[in-house]
Design brief:
Layout: H1 18-29, E1 36-40, E2 51-55, E3 58-63, E4 66-73, H2 86-93, E5 123-124, E6 131-135, E7 142-143, E8 146-147, H3 149-155, H4 158-165, E9 174-183, E10 193-203, E11 206-215, E12 220-230
Antiparallel strand pairs: 1-4, 1-9, 2-3, 3-4, 5-6, 6-10, 7-8, 9-12, 10-11, 11-12
């Protein structure tokens, strides 16, 4: 079975958004809702069918003979902070640090130049070390009334990075290296949601972060844990 990441779902201009790509990989593994863990070994190419190969731990995704990603079952065991209210998240998003001079303005999730993206702009929540933003999914990211699972994976990708970046100095840009997610329920089209992200720790160039997707009423829909790698100068 092949894997395809369409141009719409880009992060940087020439490669797939990490969370969406991880969700596609998890679906190829047979776990579209997780729990699954995906490692990205190189930027996922766009509009190009990638091959898959079973391995002892799960699944490998390849571009010719180049390894793009590996996927395997994996639990996401996290303590999730108290949900952020919709009004709080809306207020926080107005302080998103990348509203001006975004380094990846075409990103499907948080890009400011996209009219067909998710337009999730996390900012620091007042009084908490947590980034948050509102999100109301539209029909273009859904299968019928339900949001596509890979899009849910995408929605809890970038916000985890903002959970670090809203409160710490950026040494350099970062890219997603590993992503684990569990979707408890996919939201419906038009259902108001809140995405939140927070930092877990740092080891040199590696940043351990997490994110969650809640309904406006506080129901936990999905959560993720991400490893971000700071790019070398």
């Amino acid at each position: 079975m092949g894997v395809l990441i369409e141009h719409r779902f880009r992060g940087p201009n020439t490669s797939g958004n990490g969370g969406y790509s991880a969700g596609v990989a998890a679906a190829a593994l047979g776990l579209p809702l997780g729990p699954a863990e995906v490692s990205l070994w190189q930027p996922p190419p766009l509009d190009q069918e990638l091959s898959t190969r079973s391995d002892p731990d799960g699944l490998a995704i390849l571009d010719g003979d180049q390894l793009v990603a590996t996927a395997r079952p994996g639990l996401v065991d996290l303590a999730v902070p108290e949900p952020v209210g919709l009004a709080e998240a809306t207020d926080a998003s107005q302080r998103c640090p990348w509203l001006i001079d975004h380094p990846y303005p075409q990103c499907f999730v948080c890009g400011t130049a996209r009219t067909d993206g998710l337009r999730i702009f996390p900012g620091p929540v007042a009084g908490r070390r947590l980034a948050a933003a509102p999100w109301v999914p539209d029909a273009s990211v859904a299968d019928g009334p339900l949001v596509h699972p890979a899009v849910v994976w995408a929605s809890i990708d970038c916000p985890s990075l903002f959970g670090y970046g809203c409160f710490e100095r950026w040494d350099a840009l970062m890219l997603l290296g590993r992503f684990a997610a569990q979707v408890h329920r996919v939201p419906m089209v038009g259902e108001p949601c809140v995405v939140s992200g927070w930092a877990l720790g740092r080891d040199g160039r590696k940043h351990d972060t997490a994110a969650a997707l809640h309904t406006a009423d506080g129901e936990l829909l999905a959560l993720s844990r991400a490893l971000w790698i700071t790019l070398k100068e």
